[in-house]
Amino acid sequence: MKRTAFILLAAMTMLSGASQAATPDSNAGASSSPYCTSRPMHAMPLSMLPEDYPLLSVAQDEQGSVMLDFLIKTDGSITDVKVARSSGFARLDGAAADIAGQRWHFDPVVVNGRPVSCRNKVVVDWVLSLSTEQMEQAGFVVEHMTASDFPPGSFARHETGQTLVMVVTRKDGKIQEAMVQKSSGFADLDQQAIDYITHGRWTITPAQVSGQPVMAAFGFVIVWGNQD
Amino acid sequence: MALVIAASGPVLAQNAGKRNSPDSASFEIVRSHTDIDVAADGSYVQAEETAVRVLDSRSQKAFQQTTLAYTEGLQSLAVEDAYTLKANGEKIPVPQDQIMKGAGATSAPGFEDDKTLTIVFPRLDIGDEVVLTTLRKQIVPLFTGAFATRLDFSRAVKTDDTEITLTSPKSGYPLKIDAVGFDSDHVADYAGKTRRVWHYHNDNVATFPLDSVLASDDQPHLTVSSFPGYDAVGKAYGAHFAGKADVTPAIQSLADQITKGISERRAQAKALYDWVSANISYVNIVLGAGGFTPHSAAQVLSLHYGDCKDHVMLLQALLTAKGISSNAALIAAGGPFVLSAVPSPFYFNHLITYVPEFRLYLDSTAHYAPFGVLPLTDIDRPVLLVPDGTVSATPNNSADQSTGKTTLKVKFDPDGTANGEMQMSLTGTAAIVNRELIDAIPPDREKELFQISLGAGADASLDRGNIRSQSDPFSYSVHYRVPNVANFGGPGAVSAAFGVGSFNASSLAFLGLMPSSRQLPYACPSGLVSEDDILEFPSSIQITSLPAPVSIAADGMRFDMHYQTKDPHTVVGTIAMRTDHPRAFCTPEYYAGVRADLGKIAAALHGQILYK
User: Fold this and answer.
1) Do A193 and A175 meet the contact criterion of CB atoms below 8 Å apart?
2) Counting beta carbons within 10 angstroms of the beta carbon of residue A132, is it exposed (0 to 12), middle (13 to 18) or buried (19 or more)?
3) To the nearest whole angstrom, how far is the Cα of B98 from the nearest Cα of chain A?
4) Nearest CB partner across the interface for A56, out of B37, B81, B188
5) Is there a cis peptide before residue A115, judged by omega within 30 degrees of 0?
6) pLDDT at residue number B496
7) Which residue, B142, B194, B215, B256, has fewest beta-carbon neighbours within 10 Å?
8) Interface pTM, i.e. ipTM
9) Which residue in chain B is spatially nearest to A52 when comparing CA positions?
């Protein structure tokens, strides 16, 4: 049966050089655009979803890290996505490049008051079957539920599983959106997870970058029962 | 007849199509992701995830149980994930014991590799989705070093979020690709491979008349093939067929025995064809399912059954034994009339025999087909001759190669009861079609079916005639008695084309469905249909009016109808319609030109005989 798939964005690792005039990474292909001099911000999370994991890669245990090298245009959209370091699997490399090109969007990079285009690098880790410990290490918030936390009747029905929720927070730390990314298999458990998160069961600290509040996205894993 | 196309579409939707039960509007494809990885030797791995939402009870029934076929030894097939997704988001997994492995279409010796997996989806209600993820591995390439696949979609099905990804060796592996209806493909090289991605969706659901025919490339599809041309496809099949039609002493002996006393070569070929057709049972295995390698002619002779490939190998061996050369001919039976642009072995679903000496195509699996006559599904279709790879075509019928003549006598009793006697005589393709139709009527349902056709209270008996023979003509008859057809207590009317015949109201199929307009070509077989009627009324009745004579000549068709009184109480009539089309399908433009005439013909057949 299908296993859980995770895609980690290596904490949005910014691997570019420090100088705007830095020489482009030769592995990234010919490009005359400089690398960004500061970490580019993004208004929305650079999302990768479990459904993005290529079917055959899941079936064939393909895992690995892809380093993407791309150009952020003056409007914040990205183009010219190249694989700077391969995962060793064409499917994983291609899927990462495609999704980045289609979905990722940055705040325009501004230098001396003018938006500029510059290159950036991000590592995408394709990982299958993380344990809850590994998920915690990877930056997911993992919460274990006890019998009293279950929705009425579901504990008695022996419903167990994990609900993975993607949470987007605004600059003030308030939740903008909470979406079930991976169902536990039980609608009542998933709904309870959403209710707990959106109704303030846990306090969420506003995210900051360089001391500035930012929008943020992170994964919440609600563990129902003792399944790991 | 093997009619199931070897190519595939979304696995669940394809399954529904095979069942022919839900129509296009009764389900929609929510998601269809296909991921194919091709190796240089032609083997491949394919993962497929399909989510289909059922919209009515027909599709609910059709999708509740899904059966997938594979060939053990050549392929492996595993269900990676299967569940019902309720409309409220609840996911109900398919229990392991509801994924059942079974024998394929037959478990007969020689076909043991044909397997199936059947998945039963739990608690499926209208509005729910069935979600199935499968992993299929083509362990042994069907054609060494070559790869081909075809994924078909239908404009008649609402389809969202469809993505096909194909990775193949980066170099030394050129592929021919035909992607119709898809977003432009995205190609890039990664990790030593070339990765291609296509997307498809369909929000504008289109419906077509049931008799529409499609060129192979009309509907949305993706065809990928490493074959450089159809000649290569023919040669690849030839490699599978090599040595399978060898003449053994047993085959030589049988051929001599069958043709004993027959010296004329065409008559010898006919005798051999007749023998194979009558004595080798047909096991309906789709070409490709179970592989492309036939059993040897000697094996087929020993078993006395086989699929289409096996039939062809034995007939070829018997013909060879008498010095008559022949080819295997690949054909898309019941399929498109035009070859696909990309040379693919999956275009074909059936194998027949071609005898160049007589320029004759033979389909020994068509149980009712006499020597030299092809069933409707084989007519006017492209063929690929094996092993040389020559592309040719089966001939179209002329009107005289498919005829049906009805002789109808009806005597009306004074109480309004009709006593009818209908004799039908058919030749050529029409004889094949009618033998199939009549044979399909269960004896215990004859009366019921004729009651439906003739009306309440009808009592009919069917004489099936020479249905077991292949010889022309096929003659059968129906005797019937229908009460309350006419009211002879005063002025009234009876339909001129009354009863069971070629031209009665329930048999107007030869006019086609007559939609207001057409966007696609449609099936328009050539043929000659005629009827002689004698309607005898009670002596107390006076005939006051007959249908006016009608003669209509239009492009490719002619219709004549004429009624007269033979004596004051007897009406005789003749009706004939001849259609002569250059191809077995007609264009929408042709239809637009003749539709008005078809309407006149339909109106003429509603003519009535008035009496008082």
Assistant:
1) no
2) middle
3) 14
4) B37
5) no
6) 74
7) B256
8) 0.71
9) B33
Residue matched to tokens 């129509």: B23
Give A55's contacts in chain B (Cβ within 8 Å): 33-35, 47-49, 133
Tell me the average pLDDT across B95-116: 71
β-strands B281-282, B305-306 pairing? parallel
Record: contact A187-B88, CB cut-off 8 A: yes
A94 in reach of chain B (CB within 8 A): yes
Closest CA to B269 of B319, B312, B310: B319
Across the range B437-458, mean pLDDT stands at 84
- Phi and psi at A172, nearest 5°, equal -85, 5
Residues in chain A: 228
pLDDT at B468: 83
CB proximity B266 to A under 8 Å: no
Amino acid (one-letter) located at B132: L
B80 CB within 8 Å of a chain A CB: yes
Angle (CA) B580-B581-B587 rounded to 5° is 145
Provide the pLDDT confidence category of residue A25 given band limits of 50, 70 and 90: very low
At B284 the pLDDT is: 66
Of A2, A88, A183, the CB nearest to B133: A2
Nearest CA in chain A to B96: A1
Amino acid at the residue B486: A
Q: Would an 8 Å CB–CB cutoff place B188 in contact with chain A?
A: yes
**How far is residue B549's CA from residue B533's CA, in Å, rounded to a whole number?**
14
Assign B288 a pLDDT band (cuts: 50, 70, 90): low
Q: Given an 8 Å threshold on Cβ–Cβ distance, is B89 in contact with A91?
A: no
* Token representation of residue A126: 């394709």
- CA torsion sign, B448 to B451 to B456 to B459? negative
For B431-469, the DSSP string reads HHHHHHHHHTS-GGGHHHHHHHHH-TT-EEEEE-TTTT-
Chain A touched by B88 (CB under 8 Å): yes
What mean pLDDT is reported for chain A?
79
Q: What does the alpha-carbon distance between residue A84 and residue A89 come to, in Å, rounded to a whole number? A: 13
Among candidate residues B449, B458, B452, the one with its CA nearest the CA of residue B485 = B458
Q: Residue A184 corresponds to which tokens in the numbers above?
A: 């536990």
**Do the chains contact at B81 and A2, CB–CB below 8 Å?**
yes
In angstroms, the first-to-last Cα distance of chain A is 16
CA distance B70 to B53: 25
Q: Which residues of B120-149 are buried (b: 16+ CB within 10 A; e: fewer)?
A: bbeebeeebbbbbbbbbbbeebbbeebbbb
Residue at token pair 């497929």: B48
The CA distance from A68 to the nearest CA of chain B, in Å, is 12
Which residues are registered as beta bridge partners of B27?
B54
User: Residue B504 — very low, low, confident or very high, per pLDDT cuts 50/70/90?
Assistant: low
pLDDT on residue A217: 76
| Chain mean pLDDT for chain B | 86
Q: Which residues of A touch B93 (CB under 8 A)?
A: 1, 185
Which of the residue ranges B59-63, B153-157, B323-327, B580-584 would you say has the lowest mean pLDDT? B153-157
Amino acid code (one letter) for B572: V
- Range in A156-170, B156-170, B558-572 with the lowest mean pLDDT: A156-170
A163 reaches B (C-beta below 8 A): no
Give the whole-angstrom CA distance, residue B168 versus residue B177.
13
Residue A91 is nearest to which of B88, B192, B195, comparing CB atoms? B195
CA–CA separation, B553 and B529 (whole Å): 15
